[in-house]
């Protein structure tokens, strides 16, 4: 049959070749079926996170309407000639039948793949395109006359993502796209160079883990970090290499249109660091012919000795996400605050020692290209201070894969991206709970996407993390988790009447009280809220801007306004909710010494402080017996 032979021909060619070498003619009237993307969002208790903009392009049927007179020219052809991993390209385009719904998709690799896609999606014909664009923008975005003149230009920012790029013009809007034309290719001078280092606290206080991404596998080059103190001898530390395949993904779109080769993820452990010393480092790959590929140079300051008395500052937030600085992907209304949060932290980076991002990292939701974009966005932070992450529903949840919640919030990633793109000092990176010490702080980071209740492995971990800290050395004890195990007036939690994740604090509040956790932080609800020091639903002390004397109870803080669309508060006013802010922001903790801690909530829009409190106390104040924390004493002398 004519049609099937036409189709057989087409699948043997790449789409790019068909268009660029004119084979498209025989395809002119052929209806092409894009992959069907199942709705990837669930609307349980999960807060409004909006819709991943790339998922809007998932249309069931797309006509192929190549127009020989239309064109897109992209330049410069070679990017990153000065070694940079991000550069702006200019597109110039023309189409004789323009409309305001025309849009441009950025594809990488440029030669978008027309081979048979995974059998996961229902379709009548093999789809022509197996991959979503890495981003998109309307053709009229900066050329307001485009719909009249058919001529336009656009500037887009590209980052080095291990492959070349092409740009395709579509008419018919996102819901009924017709492919009109494809541009020339552009590429970074070396697409495989090591990029986007992210630091993490290692398993011990004097170890820093460096994780990065490259295009060099272990059969091509040896990865390592070259590092040392300024002016001192340079050391080389070996790196391990991980990657994963489409088969590691648990479902669509991560396994289908959202799939993109993640390249290689390398981690090196820089050991035996001297406390507080500044180190320089760069990422290296030694090719087997003896030549070296280097990243640019970076530096970090080693962590303080646990218990050390010195100024120590930690920034905490959840649910930040990513956004495109060039305005692409629906004008950034998916995580509207994320760039502001990122920029404010960069601005204050000289006064920040560590960052903790408690889950809902980049909301790739199965569009894997977005993880590169995120690691590029945070590079100025993560390459300089440890960037510690927690696991959220958007990293982990997928039905039938062991997540505590059976929703589809991870878009099929089921934790693999978060566990491989970032290092955390967990015993098992698939079980995302860990403890990390920074000077006078102990952080116990729980994983709400796995069960935390008594009798579980995680409960044992939480108890051990809280009970094993020496408060004379580390007076500041902090608990963190993605979902709100403590208290939140978020509208959904309010509707449930629980003001918490079901089964949250019931099983944990005794531990927080007994071990005198100073502050518990949560994300998931996209706003800011602070409680009074509270135990068993009752304020043990009135909320204030200054606490002193013996520990009374834990203060609970929701700091989920890192960037994703804001969540409203329940109209029900509780006695324990002290400060609420419907805006984007983050918290900064400053430990001045063993007896003075400053808590500040800053807005991402201006970096100024909108809520704050201090805790002043002595060591003996933590030893005092409070409800549920009294240890046995004897009358014997
Ligand atoms: C450009 O196109 C978008 C999407 O169709 C539309 O919402 C917007 O109003 C258009 N802008 C101009 C200046 O026409
Ligand atoms: C297209 O994808 C298939 C299956 O994933 C792969 O085997 C093939 O090498 C890819 N082709 C190109 C040109 O990338
Ligand atoms: C080693 O291989 C790389 C990549 O193929 C090449 O650019 C480089 O010039 C080679 N170096 C030597 C010393 O042959
Ligand atoms: C909080 O303040 C109110 C009014 O000043 C007072 O009546 C109440 O006893 C205080 N509660 C606590 C727990 O200190
Ligand atoms: C701790 O730091 C605070 C705030 O800077 C200061 O007021 C206090 O005197 C310091 N205490 C000690 C014991 O150094
Ligand atoms: C980001 O910051 C700018 C500058 O302060 C502000 O005008 C803008 O409203 C902020 N954006 C969001 C989404 O808060």
TrEMBL record:
Name the UniProt record assigns to this protein: Purple acid phosphatase
Pfam families (UniProt xref): fn3_PAP (PF17808), Metallophos (PF00149), Metallophos_C (PF14008), Pur_ac_phosph_N (PF16656)
Record's signal peptide: none
Residues in Calcineurin-like phosphoesterase domain copies: 313-528
Enzyme class, broadest EC rank: hydrolase
Catalytic activity annotation: a phosphate monoester + H2O = an alcohol + phosphate
Keyword Transmembrane helix: yes
Domain (Purple acid phosphatase N-terminal) ranges: 196-301
Name of the gene this protein is made from: LOC103718202
Lineage, top ranks: Eukaryota, Viridiplantae, Streptophyta, Embryophyta, Tracheophyta
Localization (cell): Secreted
Subunit structure: Homodimer.
Alphabetized UniProt keyword annotations: Glycoprotein, Hydrolase, Membrane, Secreted, Signal, Transmembrane, Transmembrane helix
Organism: Phoenix dactylifera
